[in-house]
Amino acid sequence: MSDVKSMSDAEVTIFVCTNCRDGSDADLRPGIALIDALRRATADKPIAVKPVTCLANCQNSPSAAFSHRTGWSYVFGHLALENVDAIVTGAMMLAKDERGFLPLRDRPACLRGNGMSARIPPFNHHEDMPI
Questions:
Q1: 62-121 confidence digits (pLDDT tens)
Q2: What is the bridge-based pairing of β-strands 47-52 and 12-17?
Q3: Residue 128 covered by a domain
Q4: In CATH, what number is assigned to the domain containing residue 110?
């Protein structure tokens, strides 16, 4: 039996780029180590951690994306093993938000400003104001 949580069992899935480089010559790509650390840190949480070959966020690597089951998705860059607790905190904030939205207030620093690359609405999103 696998210890990897199913996406259908999770409120939020964290996709981590396995192709990103961090500028070092290390054999282990930073995303691989980040996946392992995040899986350990989310073992008892409604969060799945999945590898993805590329998030097309190479200028901001290493990168990860949060995908809420019915809400918004977010792409973050410039992440490191030192950010694991902050990444889990942010993913839990997203999981607990009834709108499936990651509020800016109280968001960890690595998930703000230059750390955030994109925010993607859910497929069923409708703006309040017609265009």
A1: 999 999 999 999 999 999 999 999 999 999 999 999 889 999 889 999 999 889 999 999
A2: parallel
A3: no
A4: 3.40.30.10
